[in-house]
Amino acid sequence: MHDDNDSPRSAAFELDPQSGGLPKPAPPLWAWLLLVAAVVAVSSAGTVFSLLKDVPPLTLASWRLGTTSVLLGLAAAAQWRAMPPADRRRTLQQAPLLAASGACLCVHFGAWVYSVEATSLTHSLLFVSATPLFLAGGTWLLRKPISGGELAGTGVGAVGAVLLATAAARSDAQVTVRGDLAALTASLCFVGYLLIGRKLRAWMPVMVYAVSVTGLAAGLLCLGGVAFEGTRLTGAGKHGVFGWVHPSYLPYMLYLAVVPGIVGHTGFNTLLKYMDPLVISLCCNLEPLIGSLLGWAAGVVSPPGAMTYVGGALIMASTFVVSYASHVREKQQQAAGAEGCERGDEEDGAAGEAQRLPEERPMVEGERLLAG
C-alpha cells in the first residue's frame, strides 16, 4: 500500500508555509555571510569556557544564557509590541513548543559546558558537532524526504569528523568517555532546538523567539546550579547566580553573550527562516577546526596537525554538497507538486462535465430541429 508520507504534498514541512507550499527561495547573500560569522562566533565559545574552568558548569552555562537574555530583552520587547494581536495570541498558544525548545537548549548548554571541563576542547567541539548525523539519520528513519546527495554529503562530513577526532586523540591526552558522551548529548539536544526553531521561526520574530527559549534555558540551568552545584541566589563570585557581574568574569560573559550568543545562536535562529537545519548544522561541523585554531592561539590546546585541516576541508565540501542536493530535491518536489495539482484540476473538470444535467448540456443541431 502506498504511504501518504511519500507523496510530494507530504513534504510540506520542507517547504515554505508562507508561499503556499512552494520551496523556499535560495538564501540571499547576506544569509551566507551571516552563517560564516555565526559559525566563527560559536566556535570561539569553547576557548572562553576553557578559561573559566573554576566556575561550575551549570552555573557557567546559566551565566552565558542569562547575559544573552538580558541583552536581547529590549529588542524582543520592541518586536512584541509591533506584532499584530493575532500573532501575539498565536505565540502564547505555542508555549509548549517554546518550552520544549528552551529545555533542549538548556540540556545542550549544560552538557556541552560540562564536556569542555571534562574532556579535551577539540573532542568536545567534535562531538557537539554531530548534529547533522542525527538530523540526516532521523529524517531517513522517519521516511521524510531526503535525497541520496544529502545522505552522501552527510557521510562525507562524518568522514571529516572522524579525521578531526583522530587528530585530536593524537595531540591531546585529556580525553574522557564521560566528557565525550556529554558533548554527544549536547549535539542530540541541538537537533530538537533546530527543528522546533525552524517551525516557529517561519512566522515568529527572531528576538521574541530567541529571548523566550534563551531565558527559559537560563532559568532551568540556574535551578540546576542551585540544586546540584551549591549555587546561591544571593552569592557573589563563582557560586552566585549573578556572579557574572564580578569584574573578573564580566568581560568574558559580555563577550560570550554578544559574540557566540547574539551573533552566533541568534544568527542561527535568523537563518532557520531561510536555510535547511541540515545545512546550518553541517556548517557547525567546522567548529572543531575553527575552535582548535582559536584555542591554539589562546594557548589552551596544541597546534592542529595536517589531519585537522583535511577533516575541515571535507566538512566544508559536505556542506556544499548537502546545500546543493537539498536545493535540487526541493525543485523536484515543486515540479511534482505542480504536476499533481494540474492533474487533479483536469480530473475535477472531467468529473464535473460528466455530472452535468442533460438540460444543462448544449443541444446539437439535430436536437434543435426536433425541438423546433
Please explain how this structure is put together.
This protein is an all-alpha fold. It has one domain. Helix content is 72%, strand content 0%. The protein has helices at 29-43, 45-50, 57-82, 85-93, 95-118, 121-128, 131-141, 148-171, 177-200, 206-228, 250-271, 277-284, 287-298, 306-354, 365-371. Helix 1 (29-43) packs antiparallel against helix 11 (250-271), helix 3 runs antiparallel to helix 10 (206-228) and helix 5 packs antiparallel against helix 9. The longest helix is centred in the C-terminal third of the chain and has 49 residues, at 306-354. 46% of the residues are buried.
List key phrases describing it.
mainly alpha, disordered N terminus, globular
Helical amount:
over 70%
The chain-level structural class is: mainly alpha
Low-confidence stretches: 1-21
The biggest sheet amounts to:
none
Distance N terminus to C terminus?
A: 56 Å
The number of helical runs is 15
Which radius of gyration do the C-alpha atoms yield?
A: 26 Å
Mean pLDDT: 81
Strand content is under 5%
What is the number of independent domains? 1
Which geometry do the CA atoms define?
Answer: globular
The SSE order reads HHHHHHHHHHHHHHH
Total beta strand runs? 0
Topology readout:
Blueprint: H1 29-43, H2 45-50, H3 57-82, H4 85-93, H5 95-118, H6 121-128, H7 131-141, H8 148-171, H9 177-200, H10 206-228, H11 250-271, H12 277-284, H13 287-298, H14 306-354, H15 365-371
